[in-house]
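Technical annex B. To support the medicinal chemistry partners, we prepared a structural model of the target in complex with S-adenosylmethionine, based solely on the information shown next.
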Amino acid sequence: MSERYQPAAAGDAATGAPGPGSAAAGECVGEGLWLVRRESGLALVSDDGLELTGDFSAMRRRLRPQNLAHELLVRAARVKGVAHPTVFDATAGLGEDSFLLASAGFSVTLCERDPVIAALLADALERAAADPGLAQAASRMRLVRADSVAELATLEQAPDVVFLDPMFPGRQKSALVKKKLQLLQRLERPCSDEAGLMGAALAARPRKVVVKRPAKGPWLAGVRPSYSLAGKAVRYDCVVPASCGNLAQAEKDPRS
Ligand SMILES: C[S@@+](CC[C@H](N)C(=O)[O-])C[C@H]1O[C@@H](n2cnc3c(N)ncnc32)[C@H](O)[C@@H]1O
């Protein structure tokens, strides 16, 4: 993480210094990948011209109270009789799902193990905290840079909800998702420890585990959900330990 990034076209060819208005010098964080400080925030930039910044401001329309109430994730994560449930987002990524939940009144701990994704997320949270329209939600969010499997085992108080959205190996259709994923997939691989993640989530003794899956994807780690909320592209599988036993057994998913 010590090389410097200087886009050739924008910099001074003689001195190698970044030119005015160009990207500031950045850190190499992988093959052809750079973390660059832009005026708009920290960006992950690739040599082939892709760029990604964590940003919650584009979500404003979705964050209106009348919209939030209909968000499938918000409905899946609600806990009967608890006005402001606590959520442990064990696969935080760039935090958009968590931001929806925080905007709906949940208190969210976001856990991210990849240092580059965590840096983008921390930067997005910082900018949200300084934006009057987003600050209230940001104040309900806390970032932990760690592996969730280990972190969940250290929790002194059980969260109401553990949320899991590990990278799914299948194809994604939306162009936007594709573009973001192209960059993110260079940093992270599809989840290879589904059972470890689900086991750690259940062992933390939440009231429920909510798992985000592609609409037709298999159950995570083969654990049968107590119920599911399905949309066109995405499905939320809710595992309620009290209704299926704390050691939910892996079963053969009828879809697989
Ligand atoms: C598909 S992305 C999550 C996207 C997220 N829901 C959002 O709204 O942006 C999955 C993320 O989980 C992280 N992750 C996977 N396993 C993890 C673990 N055991 N502990 C912490 N983070 C993990 C990956 O690094 C990746 O950033």
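Notes passed to the chemistry partners:
The CA atoms of residues 177 and 184 lie 10 Å apart.
The first strand starts at residue 4 and ends at 5.
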